[in-house]
Design brief:
mainly beta, five-stranded antiparallel beta sheet, 35% strand
Amino acid sequence: MLLIVQALPSAPVYTDPIGFNKITCLTNSDTIVGVPFRAEGSLKSVLASAPVTAGDGETATLTISNSSLNPGALGTHYVKFDGGTRDGRWYDITANTANTLTIDLNGDNLTGVLSGNSLVIARYWTLDSLFPPAQATTSWTLDPESGIQVPNGHAIVSSLGTAPSGRRTQILFPNNATLGTNRPSTDIFYINRNTNLWVRVAGSVTPPGETIIFPDTYITIRHVPSVTHSTILRVSGDVVTNNQSIALSTRPLGAGSNDNYVAIPRPVDVSLWDLNIVQSGAFTASSGTSPAARRDQLLVYNNSIPQINRPVDAIYYYLVDKWVKVGDATQSSQNNVIIPSSAGLIVRKYNTAGGVTSHWINTPSY
């Protein structure tokens, strides 16, 4: 990861360091990745007063110290707390004035949030902002120094029209709207080279290019066999220097486990232990090594092996005081196993009384 110290604009806008990284997306393969940075231009502020929750408990109004927001301009933004009782949690902004934000609580509450608590207002990544259609790859050029084929655009290869035979790179979104395990992807998108627009394979989204990539989930970049060479996913943006909370859903007792398709916004490799998912209380330890004794499990992928419909590469669970790999008869500690930056993960949560949601507080290791 490359870190660049960015010159600060005039008050009251403050920015985090800017980072950059890149990932190879293999041909004829699924590359499962998260976006490790916030979109550039986030705004830091503090609450000028305690939040006011609506009578139905579904939304809340935040009054911030800044008074220079453009009213109604934050429809594709979210707010994240950087301290207090909701440290790391983020909420969708549904409306704003010059100094207030209306947020969707999505079943949460703001108990204990106080005047003076820090927050950041950030723009969501969308398909258009992360992968502008006009900059999609259409061909490759042989680099004489490295001897490899270099794409002339970003990681997405545009498709030759809308017919299935003409589709090239597709982006698959995991199904985060329902519960259960091994859920198939619900949304698939590609770029139409003829129109320079994103297209959704089924259903209607207007426009598809404004589809949001949430900050705590992954996407799958699928190069079909007709994509003849690998591409490079290059991402730059604000480095998240504070805690990030990732909500992990469960099913009620007796209903089975639930897969949470997640990504952590960290542009550096991190060990299993340093994920902090166990220490944060969001991961239930197992009482033994047998399948019946296992509780929460962490499923990881290996993007270095070309494969469509990629299966998980390894499954880990926590036993007493260490991470253990499923299938390891020695039960040796896996605490130092490295999770690559930008990795997509599945947190398979065991069922709980009432199907409660836990919050994984991921702390930066830098």
